[in-house]
Amino acid sequence: MNEQYLPEASNKKPVKPRTVQEKEAVMNRLKRIEGQVRGIQKMVEDDRYCVDVLIQISAINKALDKVGHSLLERHTHHCVASAIKNGNGEEAIDELMKVIQQFSK
Amino acid sequence: MNEQYLPEASNKKPVKPRTVQEKEAVMNRLKRIEGQVRGIQKMVEDDRYCVDVLIQISAINKALDKVGHSLLERHTHHCVASAIKNGNGEEAIDELMKVIQQFSK
Amino acid sequence: MNEQYLPEASNKKPVKPRTVQEKEAVMNRLKRIEGQVRGIQKMVEDDRYCVDVLIQISAINKALDKVGHSLLERHTHHCVASAIKNGNGEEAIDELMKVIQQFSK
Amino acid sequence: MNEQYLPEASNKKPVKPRTVQEKEAVMNRLKRIEGQVRGIQKMVEDDRYCVDVLIQISAINKALDKVGHSLLERHTHHCVASAIKNGNGEEAIDELMKVIQQFSK
Fold it and tell me: Positions of the region Disordered (chains A, B, C, D) (predicted)?
C-alpha cells in the first residue's frame, strides 16, 4: 500500500548491509515521527491553535533531518568510502553532492 | 497515545474555526505524509539503498513545509489580521515572527 | 555601479520611513557582512582550507538571515499591520507569504 | 582589516592547491556577492521597500549556497577522497558531516 510513495526502485543496496541494531535505531526514530504526524492530524481535527500545529510540524522536520543526517553519515562512511577505495569515487561523490543539494533546498 | 507528542496545550484556538473542507484538505496531506513515513520504514527494513531513502526523506520535508506554509497563510489572514484590527497586533506579530524563525532554523 | 544588482524597482516605500537609528543598525550589520565576504575572498586567494572557508560562508548566511528577519519583523509590524488596518490586508499578507516562502527555499 | 572576520586559522590546506582558473571562478562569484551586499546597503539608505530588500537578501543567500556547494564538491573530490585512499577517511568524513550539518541549520 505504501509502495505508491516509494521512489523508483534503484537496484543499489548499501555496500555493508544495515545491522539489526542499526535498523532498530532508525525504525524507532521513524515510528516516533509517524506518531508525531498522527499527533498533528489530531490537532487539526480538534481545531487546535495554528501556531501550536506549526511548532509541531517544525519539530517533525528537525527529527527527519536528524534521521537523514545519520543515514547520510553511514552512507558516506560505507558506500562512498568503499567506492573511492575501489576507484569508483567520482560517481559516488557526484551522487552524494546531488542528494546534499536536494536537502538544502 | 499520540498525546505524548503534542506540545503543551495552549488554550488558544483559531479565531475562525477551520471549515470541514479546510480540515479535510489538511488531513489528506497529513495522511499522505504518514504514508510516506511508513514507506521509508519499509525501505529501511528492506535494506534499500541509502540515497533512495534520503531522497524520500527530503520529499517528506518538502511536503511538511507545504502544509506548514498553508497553515501559516491561514493563520496570518485570520488570526493575525484579526488581532491587528482589534488592537492586539503586536503580540500576534511577535508570535508569528517567532514561529517563522523556528521554521527557518 | 551596484545598481546592476538591484531588483527591479518597485515604487513602494516602507509606510513608516526608517529612522536614522534603524538605518544605522542595519547598515552596520551589512558593512560587517561585506567585510566577511571580503574575508573569504582573501581566504580563497591564500588557498586556505576548504572547510574553513565553508564555515565562514555558513556564518555569512546566518548573519544575512538575521538582517532579513529583522527587516521582515519591521515590515510586518508597520507595512502589513497598516495595510490590514486600512482594509488592504489581503494583498499585503499574500506578498508577505510569498517572501517568506522564498526565504525558506 | 578583514582578518578580524577570519575563523581561527587551521593549518590545513586543500590537498590539491586551487588552480588559477579555480580561484578566478570563485573570486568572480564572491566579487559579485560583495556587490550585491553593497547593493542592499544602498537600498536601505534610499529607504527602499522592505520586501524588495528581502528578495535581494534571499538572492545573496542562494548565491552563497552555490559557492559553498561548489567548494564542498571540490573538497570531497580531492581532500576527502585523498584521505580515504590514505586510510584517514574516518576523520575527514566526520569533518565533512559536521560542516554539512552546519549548513543545514
Answer: 1-21
**Is B77–C93 a contact, with Cβ atoms under 8 angstroms apart?**
yes
- Residues of chain C with pLDDT > 90, as a percent, come to 84
- C100 and chain D in contact, CB less than 8 A: no
Give pLDDT tens digits for A79-101: 999 999 999 999 999 999 999 99
Q: Is residue C46 part of a domain?
A: yes
CATH code of A72's domain: 1.20.58.1000
Q: Check CB contact of D53 with chain A, cutoff 8 Å.
A: no
Question: Is D24 inside any structural domain?
Answer: yes
Report whether D69 contacts D6 (CB < 8 A): no
Q: Are C47 and C55 in contact (CB under 8 A)?
A: no
Alpha-carbon distance of A18 to B85, in angstroms, equals: 57
**D65 interfaces chain C, CB cutoff of 8 Å:** yes
* C32 to C25, D27, D46, D59, D85: CA distances (angstroms): 11, 19, 19, 18, 40
Q: Nearest C-alpha of chain D: how many angstroms from C52? A: 7
Query: pLDDT tens, C83-96?
Result: 999 999 999 999 99
Q: Which residue has the cell 504518514?
A: B34
Contact B43, B74 (CB under 8 A): no
**Residue A7, domain member (yes or no):** no
Domain membership of residue C70 (yes or no) is yes
Residues 4-33, chain A, touching B (beta carbon < 8 A) = 4-7, 9-10, 12-14, 17-18, 23, 26-27, 30-33
Q: What is the total count of domains within chain B?
A: 1
pLDDT in tens, B16-59: 999 999 999 999 999 999 999 999 999 999 999 999 999 999 99
